Amino acid sequence: MRAIHNPDCAETELTPEDHLVLIKRIAEKRDRDAFQALFLHFGPRVKAIMQQSGADPALAEDLVQDVMLTVWSKVHLYAAERGTVSTWIYTIARNARIDRFRRRSSRPYQDLDTIEVASEECNGEDALFASQRAGLVALALEELPAEQREIIESAFVRDMSQTEIAEKLSLPLGTVKSRMRLAYTKLKAKLEGVQ
């Protein structure tokens, strides 16, 4: 692990093993140095993803703050068996972006009397199945070759088109399409029984 305590470093290079060590330190000891290292590593990456998804720099920065605050406050919810730290953080980022854009939606006002609201009571069985399903999907993603996983994450976490992915990775569009098709085939085989 390099440069995790250097506040002047704009971006650090950490391995997935480093991510796991830092998350454990945050969860177990509320270690601010570990959080700073994670922030320095993921902050610029999350901001870049947000900007690639259409957020202006100020909104992207706000979303980074939201994401990292969620990481700090919900670190106890991270489960290594469900996926890597980076997958967890990028999922938080994706959800934060979706939530923010939903709130900023320009939908016209609707009278509350005309809206039907579903019950907020959580069905324990549904929650359990959703959690298990998310864990299985994360594991299946981790088993993909790195070049296929990167394309799938770019498409679904960063919301990029195949053309944008091809440009970002300096690959022919056909290569991106074939890697995506291969990844889908592998994911489908691994997740066939998952509902």
Automatic annotation (TrEMBL):
Gene3D superfamilies: 1.10.1740.10, Winged helix-like DNA-binding domain superfamily/Winged helix DNA-binding domain. Residues 38-106, 140-188 form the RNA polymerase sigma-70 region domain. The keyword Transcription regulation applies. It comes from the Bacteria. InterPro entries: RNA_pol_sigma-70-like, RNA_pol_sigma-70_dom, RNA_pol_sigma70_ECF_CS, RNA_pol_sigma70_r2, RNA_pol_sigma70_r4, RNA_pol_sigma_r2, RNA_pol_sigma_r3/r4-like, WH-like_DNA-bd_sf. Keywords: DNA-binding, Sigma factor, Transcription, Transcription regulation. Belongs to the sigma-70 factor family. ECF subfamily. NCBIfam families: sigma70-ECF. This is RNA polymerase sigma factor. It comes from Roseibium salinum.
